[in-house]
Write a structure and sequence with these properties.
CATH superfamily of one domain: NAD(P)-binding Rossmann-like Domain
CATH architecture of one domain: 3-Layer(aba) Sandwich
Helix content: 40-55%
Number of helices: 16
Strand order of the largest sheet: 4-3-2-1-5-6-7
Bound molecules: NADPH dihydro-nicotinamide-adenine-dinucleotide phosphate
Distance between the termini: 53 Å
Amino acid sequence: MKGVAILGATGSIGRSALSVLDQHPDRFRLIAITAHRNEEALEDLVREHRPSLAVLSDVGSSKGEAGAGRVDGAEGLIEAATHPEVDIVVNALVGAAGLEPTVAALRAGKRVALANKESLVCGGSLVLEAARRGGGELIPVDSEHSAILQCLEGSSRRSVERLVLTASGGPFRTLDPEQLASVTPGDALRHPTWEMGAKVTVDSATLANKALEVIEAHFLFGIGYDRIDAVVHPQSIVHSMVEFVDGSVLAQMGFPTMEIPVLYALTYPDRLPFRSRRFDPVEAGSLTFERIREGVFPAFSLGVRAGRAGGAHPAVFNAANEVAVDAFLQGRIGFLDVGSAIGNALDRWRGADVVDVESVLEVDRWARATTTTFIERHAHC
Ligand code: NDP
């Protein structure tokens, strides 16, 4: 019986994790859940799942006196992530807010089932160092990285030639820049193959998400950027591939669902039965692959370049992207301004390297302020 904490339980991945746990009550016990602002949804989950600890991380969103087993404020995230009865922390938070709980859980020797890719992007080497020191374990939830982990099973790292991440291409895959200039947040939120939270859905439309995933793969699997590629695969059936030195390629496939990668992150390297729609290759139909149009989706190449530059650059990329996506969702800037805002922050960054979590958070604050200024100059309203 493993104790589980779900950080971001009210979100899309958080709810997938809850439904996975529901299928295996004999294997997993829910110890802690967190939400940020959605107190009502948090309290509904508390009534339904009866965790020992419930956290509302945005203290200002609490409407009343928190009852027993409730903690309000960001420190509650650390409490949930390091709870003595927790073996596995599902980090399903969105954004750089996930970094401190990831590091705290790994330092406390927990397995982190990581959906919050932003943690690794902002603080890659610090996260790996926390795992080394604390004895914690980092297992990806992202379907692409889960696919790679599954393809790598039983192979030595020396036999790996290249990782190939797949990208759906998002809702604007075939549009040209003139058409992209007038797309709305509503258009961006209509993802063709995945149902996800708003931020990652927009990231998927700009392809910033694929850059975040290239950086995530670099840290997770210890593979150089020259050996990580990404291709567009509109059907989202092949979740990613690994090419080996002998030219053989393994791919992991399935209909799009996040529940299977969440379950695998909980049970790795074992597998448990799971009731879900079974794969049918005939129903999946044709599988096609295309190059990413880097000139049309600049957020992708900006992100990969930030990854290659290393140091604090990925943290700058991530924070600028978070602020720009938020402004786009509020209708303050256009879709094409997201790439420009990220480029502006990266061009201006002249700071030092990151040495600890506090220095990452400082870079994050700088990039947010710089991007906010950029957006104020470019905002429609
Ligand atoms: P959602 O927006 O659906 O959920 C985010 C969760 O985090 C909610 O519980 C939210 O609480 C909480 N939260 C939001 N902001 C903060 C904050 N500043 N501090 C603490 N908690 C916060 O996101 P998703 O589930 O879609 O995504 C979560 C992570 O998983 C992201 O990193 C995403 O990139 C990654 N991911 C998601 C996939 C998906 O299918 N959704 C697929 C692969 C990766 P509240 O409800 O109170 O706002």
